[in-house]
Amino acid sequence: MQKPHLNVAVGIIYSKDQSKVLMAQRPKGKSWEDWWEFPGGKIEAGETVSKALARELKEELNIDVTQSYPWLVMNFEYPTHTVELHFEQVLAWQGEIKGLENQLFQWIDPHQHNLTQILPASEPILRCLQLPRQYAITDIQSFDQLDNQLKKLESLFQQGIGMVQFREPKWKDSKQQLEQAFSKVQAFCHQHQKLLLVNSCHPKSWWQQADGVQLRACDAIFLEERPLNKDYWVGVSAHHLADLLYAQKIEADFAVLGHILDTPSHAHEPALGWEALHTFSQEVSLPIYAIGGMSFKLLETALSHGAYGIAGIRFNDFVC
């Protein structure tokens, strides 16, 4: 017999400083009582996801949503039913949070928390939320430019960059100098407590020296499973929906999709555009970074079209 199916709107509610997210404990008398989850509820007939979520958060937590964006859609099977979870990122809200169903709630840091009994469908979301919003890609090219790159990274860190990809396909100097450059960038990132991933054009032995790998689409397609365990991050570069679907198949943690806007590095190739980002983001259940013509000012636009964050070699409003 086919299990009952529910469509559910779920809110990732951020604290005012965007550093924590809200989780609620399921009330007594409901299924999975006392387990922790992201707040939300059933989408009623005729409701959009945003309207359903706004209604549920008002009824459950006494808050009014003032800014939210569509994010992931995940299907999950429980013993008694299946659910399609429509996650929205709630970046701004008004009101005093109260558990109107007598449920407990708690602000948590996704990187470290003491909650036990987290709903299975919420666990992978917590891992996603450990990713930073902004992702920079190196373009050093030669050893004599390394110091300039480190200065640029330091300024980018001050502007919110939380993750760096070491990617040097145009390297002009020796392999030994390339390895030295990698070691210096790695030490610099870790000194500043930023994540460093290595592009798959570089030796595999470097991936685990860093915090993971950014797979080129042409490398990802030859894999049948994720190449590193969950102690490391695995990203996939994507240029169309098929790449995103394959990234999901091998259980990558995220994808970088582009180019979204016109960019000098792809001057003769048409951009995907914002609508493609929105459409593709609803077809996969993994965070997507928008790349191509990005600037810090475009982060909110990217979020509004389903992205988790932005990535770039050159950020258009970069200040050094």
UniProtKB/TrEMBL annotation:
This is 8-oxo-dGTP diphosphatase. NCBIfam families: PRK08999.1. Belongs to the Nudix hydrolase family. Residues 3-133 form the Nudix hydrolase domain. InterPro entries: Aldolase_TIM (IPR013785), MutT-like (IPR047127), Nudix_hydrolase (IPR020476), NUDIX_hydrolase-like_dom_sf (IPR015797), NUDIX_hydrolase_CS (IPR020084), NUDIX_hydrolase_dom (IPR000086), ThiamineP_synth_sf (IPR036206), ThiamineP_synth_TenI (IPR022998). Its EC number is 3.6.1.55. It holds the Pfam family TMP-TENI. It catalyses: 8-oxo-dGTP + H2O = 8-oxo-dGMP + diphosphate + H(+); 8-oxo-GTP + H2O = 8-oxo-GMP + diphosphate + H(+). CDD domains: NUDIX_MutT_NudA_like (cd03425), TMP_TenI (cd00564). Keywords: DNA damage, DNA repair, DNA replication, Hydrolase, Magnesium, Metal-binding, Mutator protein. The keyword DNA damage applies. GO terms for molecular function: 8-oxo-7,8-dihydrodeoxyguanosine triphosphate pyrophosphatase activity; 8-oxo-7,8-dihydroguanosine triphosphate pyrophosphatase activity; 8-oxo-dGDP phosphatase activity; 8-oxo-GDP phosphatase activity; metal ion binding. One of its GO terms (biological process) is DNA repair. It comes from Basilea psittacipulmonis DSM 24701. Its cofactor is Mg(2+).
